[in-house]
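Supplementary notes for students who missed Thursday's class. We covered one full example, reproduced here. Read the sequence, then the structure, then the short commentary at the end.
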Amino acid sequence: MKYNTDKAQKLLSEYLEACQRLKELSQLDFLGFSSDPHKVASAKYHLIIAIEAATDLCNHIIAGNSLRVPEDYADTFRIMGENGLIPKDFTITLEKMAKFRNRLVHRYWGVDTEFLYSILCDNLGDLDRFLVEMRAGLKGSS
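Structure (token representation):
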């Protein structure tokens, strides 16, 4: 797989920083999280940054290797799965993540705080897994 190492490192750095902030927020109890609108907004923001960095990295690889053009954010992950760069069973999780990003961006006020907190507590492992899968894919293709 072709990709620009500097571009990939920049995107991974943004991704890692957002993930670190999300992990810090996940350490709060629900009351400590939900009672502070700045923490809730921070979680939303860092989820958007992490998901966009993930899709940007995938789009960089897709474009650099002349793979089919994604129809939307979720399709970006589907293409990666179709080409063996991410396990196909994991692309379903990533597609849901991309759809959640769209919900955050386009209906920011409609995201339930309890649901957001459950993502922080139960789903950050998906972000870790994406990183592991991408690093393996990039390392294996260099």
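Commentary. The CA atoms of residues 15 and 53 lie 6 Å apart. DSSP finds seven helices and no strands in the chain. If anything here is unclear, bring it to office hours.
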